[in-house]
Amino acid sequence: MSNLALLVSPPSSKTAIAITKEALTADQAQELALCSQSFQHFLHYWRFKNRETGAERSFATVWRGQADLADLMEREPWIFALKAGKLGFSELACAYDGWVARFGHPNARVHLFSYSGDSARDIFEWVKYGLDHLPEWMRLPIVDDEAGADNSRSVKLYAGESDKRRIIAYNTGRSISIDQTCTHAHLDEFARWPSEEMWAAIQSTIAPHGSCHIITRGRGPNYAAQVYNNAKAGIVTSQSGQVMRAFFAPFDQRPGRDEAWLEKQAASFGRQAAIWQFAPRTDREALQGDDTYVYPQYENPPGRHRVPAHPCALKDCQKIAIGVDPGGVHPTAMGVWGERSSGRRHLFAEFYEQHATDDMIEAWIVRQWQVAGQPRNGKIRVYAPPDEPTLLATLESHLRRYGIAVIKANTDIDEGIRTCGRYLNDNAMTIHESCVNHDNEFRDYRNTTTTDKATKVEYAGERPIKHHADAMDEMRYAHLGMSQWIEYKPVRLPGGRMVMGR
């Protein structure tokens, strides 16, 4: 590198470093300074190959969806971009990767993550192609890497003797090294990753005040959907408190796409879930499930079952059932469900706590009894699994004084799922939007899959995966309890004592 001149103009948080054989012209120096300060200005110089045609293109002009995302990238460091297919967002994210590597802080380190080795290599090649095709006066020299290194996944850029920048691609099928801190992380097609643990591992590697871009299409109400919903609620943050911003781009954010185009695509896709994931109108469609989900009808169409307001006061319900799914390693889940005179049912409130004690469970139930107007005579019934005899006995003993009946739940999984599914299908079940844990579990409650030995085709099985299903279990207990409700009437025993009988 000794025959090259190092120019820095002007110094800033993102330095306009140039290493050239000849001095920069005034225009080049100005452009270099502008690019160092503005990602959107840098986009004019970024080139990539169109994956559909193979032709080289640039971001000198951008589609509407790309313009909106680029503007957000300029302003917000942490972004979850949920998108329709073929909007060019991955190419845009790769341009940002290149911008951080070229104009980021000294010794910037960019990590690229994708769901397979081939896809990780692909996005790395897109970044490298863009860097290689910058104007010569804007490029940084490439440093020969260590002997035996996989240079199809990594590159080192020279920006000075004490300033080497790295771009490294990882696929999530491999163990991810968490001992390397990165300046920027790009998570490609996050919804198709094989393990949710990867997200937790990657989060811890991003430097404070670093940046993170998740770019993905939806794949049903899985873990990625939960992260998106959390980002939308403003509760996903970096180590330094930066809030991840949720961004959604529908199918029509590219020229030539309208309702007629969508109708034609839907006819060719065959399965509704497939077109939702490729060309969604809303983020709810993008996160909609298919036949591998236990309740694919949930939130189909969007807003169908999750509501912002209670349909009536809890005290006005004819039946009130509280399901209890006690947890040890998993959370204890409870929900208070009310059935109105119309037969429709609504989840008014939820309890979802790790390491909940019997006292905590009892106190929450009593609060719901108070909200319901302190009814007697078994109007509120608590359903707990029969394999929890100690909890049943404790609750029965303590809640009897309030006129709350404690009953062994019917834990038949198939019967419970059929019952809950029927109420969902009939638009006869809603949950309040504050019940976020029930909402998340609905989106992540999947059946096991089975592969046909002859055809190797994978299809949905008949049993749900027992994973994060605590709220779904309590829901089954409560709904079967209401469907098998037996009225209790006061009976006077000899001697004058009143008891509740059938």
Can you describe what's shown?
By secondary structure, this protein is an alpha/beta fold. The chain has two domains: 60-249, Rossmann fold (3-Layer(aba) Sandwich); 314-491, 2-Layer Sandwich (Nucleotidyltransferase, domain 5). The protein contains 15 helices and 23 strands. It has helices at 26-37, 39-42, 64-75, 89-103, 117-132, 197-203, 223-232, 259-269, 272-278, 283-286, 358-371, 389-399, 413-425, 436-444, 470-483, and strands at residues 5-8, 17-20, 47-49, 56-58, 78-83, 109-114, 142-143, 154-158, 164-171, 182-188, 206-217, 245-249, 306-307, 319-325, 332-339, 345-353, 380-384, 405-408, 429-432, 447-451, 458-464, 489-492, 498-501. The strands form six sheets. The protein has an eight-stranded mixed β-sheet, sandwiched between helices. Strands 13-19-16-15-14-17-18 form a seven-stranded mixed β-sheet. Helix 4 (89-103) packs across helix 5 (117-132) and helix 13 (413-425) crosses helix 15.
